[in-house]
Structures are given as structure tokens and as C-alpha cells.
């Protein structure tokens, strides 16, 4: 099973994303069951945010983990840019903790950059870490220049992760962001690692090479796409699903190893970038 080191903990390289979960009351029981099935199948990281459903996702996660061993889990949430100030972040964090039913987060991410000076946000993240309410902090939707600016700030090198969009059809960060993160030993959390199916006209699941390799390994195309994302030992994938069966399939991809020639065949279909591209976000 593939693992990586995240904020000082060794965790499986596939976690549980929760964007859009908690939005539909009729799916509540199914979504709770899916999260619990993921943990039972080996997941430890659960990623959420105060933005997701205006707190509904955090409440759903809180309900799902209530009977579970909190110490075995690695909980991530995120603070909105408008709440990432000295005056507002502590209250924002407290609200997230209450919705999740926990007294600490393993990792607290600055969701994306806003108008609050980055130095102020970092200083407040450092202060909150000193209280024990967050064990570590990181960032999200940061590009190479954002990371370089962060690194120059007091406390900036304490960043423990950057969460960006990354999948076989969106490889822009392969050019500048991922090399920087490898050099500075900052893990990447890849959101939407299977491209939400076939969004943006990528046709990942219908690509003949993807389908051929999936058939060769006797796995689904989604499992193959996840295995591609976590081929890098410093990348954590956080796919989202409300299906118990799909959740278990996602976690099974932890044991899928793609051979060099298979990776080369995928590179030919979906080439790595040869120049800097704008950061892809959704």
C-alpha cells in the first residue's frame, strides 16, 4: 500500500474528499456510510472545508466519524480567504471544530488567496498551531510564485502541504509547482484526481490507452487514474464519492503499481507541460 508523510504522520496516499457531500439530505445516510467504508478500507485522511455547503460537509463528516477512533484519523479543513485574518480566523476555526465534533485538526489549510496579507494569515496560522487546535497548517490553490512568496515569510517554511487541482488531464503543475514542492519537501494534496469523470472535454475515461491499461490490470478506469496521480511518493489523492462500492474501489487503487512503459504510454496521450501554464482551479 502506498503511503506518504504528511505533517509528520504516515498516511495512505489516497484519502477521502468531501466537496459537495452533505448538500442533499436524502443522501445523508449513504454519504456517512461511504465515509465510514473508506476508513474501514484503509483511508485515514478526510478532507473538508468550511466553504463546502457552508458547513454542511463538515457536519456530515462530524456525524460520520463520531463512532470512529479520532486518533486514527487525519482531519483536514480549510479557512476561507475572508476569514483568514488575525481578527476572524480563530472564530472560523472554532466553528469548524464544532461542526466536526473534534477539538483539533490535523491540518488546517488557507483555501485560496484573498485580500488579507499573506504574512498576517501565516502569523495567525502559526499562533493557532501553538494553541494545539491545529497540529499543522498548509495552503491550497497556490501556484509556484505564491509558494516562493510564502517561503520567504517568517514561519512560511513551516507549511506542510499545498492542495491543488491535479489529474491526468490537468498537468500544468507538473512544470513548475510540483518540482518546487519536491525540492522543498512539501507534499501535494491532489483534489479532483479523476477529473470529476470527463469534465472539461478531457475524455479520460474513454481514452483507449486508459481503457486498455485498466483492462490489463483488471481495474476500473477511475482506479487507474488514481494510481497515476499517486505515482509520485509526495502526492496524496482525495477523490470524492457518495458510493460505498466506489469508495472501496478508490482505496483498492493504493496497491496498483503502473510500470514505466505504462506511464510513458499515458504521457504520450496526455503530455506533461513544456512551459509554465496558469494554475488550473475549479
TrEMBL record:
Substrate binds at residue 111. The record marks 78 as: Lowers pKa of active site Tyr. Gene3D superfamilies: NADP-dependent oxidoreductase domain. Residues 13-268 form the NADP-dependent oxidoreductase domain. The active site is at residue 52. CDD domains: AKR_YeaE. GO terms for molecular function: oxidoreductase activity. InterPro entries: AKR, NAD(P)_OxRdtase_dom_sf, NADP_OxRdtase_dom. Pfam families: Aldo_ket_red. This is Aldo keto reductase. It comes from Levilactobacillus namurensis DSM 19117.
